[in-house]
Each structure stands twice: as structure tokens, then as C-alpha cells.
């Protein structure tokens, strides 16, 4: 008997897919950290209460400052892998400007 492969199996995933998945997870983690630390700076009293004193204003500021550059780098790489606009794919789907429907 030979083992059958499943579509979602990580053993058959290409290195590019693994990198993309890792990038997505890292970006999600950094986004959440960036948002939470930003809230910890702006709304430090409620955030300190919510985190039982773990997240102080000073710690929030340090985290926010420390992860700013890595967050921007991850975001730039993510946009490179997943550009928001694919002109060729967009035109193939019929979203291009049609001259017949254009009103003068």
C-alpha cells in the first residue's frame, strides 16, 4: 500500500507555499501585537486592567517601537507576494473598461 497524499498535507507543500503561510502567520501575529501595544499606549489604564498589570504604558511603547520596522518589512513582503491589483487577471475576469457600456 502506498500512502495517499491529501490536498492540505504539509509534506507536499512547495517551499513557496510554506514561506507564504509562515509570512501570513507572522504578519497576523505582528499586526495583533502592533494593535494591542498601540492600545496599550493610548488606553493604558484599561489595558493594564485587562492584562492584570502585565501590559504597562512603558512596556506597550517599547513593544510598539521594537516591532514597527519588522511589521513594515513583513507587510511589504506580503504585498509583494499578494499584490492588491493584478491587471491581467482583472481583465480576464471581465472587469476591464468596456467601450460599449461607456456613457459620453
Could you characterize what this model shows?
With 104 residues, the chain is mainly α. It has 4 helices and no strands. Helix 1 crosses helix 2 and helix 1 packs antiparallel against helix 3 (57-81). It is elongated and about 50 Å long. 5% of the residues are buried.
Task: Give short descriptive properties of this protein.
4 helices; 104 residues
Structural classification: mainly alpha
- Assembly state here? single chain
Largest sheet: none
**Over all CA atoms, what is the radius of gyration?**
22 Å
Global geometry: elongated
Which secondary structure elements does this structure contain, and how are they paired or packed?
Elements: H1 15-42, H2 44-50, H3 57-81, H4 87-92
Helix pairs in contact: 1-2, 1-3
Amino acid at each position: 500500500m502506498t500512502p495517499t497524499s491529501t490536498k492540505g498535507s504539509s509534506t507536499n507543500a512547495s517551499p513557496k507555499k510554506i514561506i507564504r503561510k509562515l509570512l501570513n502567520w507572522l504578519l497576523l501575529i505582528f499586526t495583533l501585537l502592533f494593535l494591542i501595544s498601540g492600545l496599550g499606549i493610548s488606553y493604558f489604564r484599561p489595558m493594564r486592567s485587562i492584562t492584570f498589570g502585565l501590559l504597562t504604558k512603558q512596556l506597550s511603547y517599547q513593544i510598539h517601537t521594537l516591532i514597527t520596522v519588522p511589521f513594515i518589512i513583513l507587510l511589504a513582503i506580503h504585498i509583494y507576494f499578494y499584490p492588491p491589483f493584478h491587471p491581467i487577471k482583472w481583465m480576464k475576469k471581465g472587469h476591464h473598461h468596456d467601450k460599449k457600456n461607456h456613457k459620453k
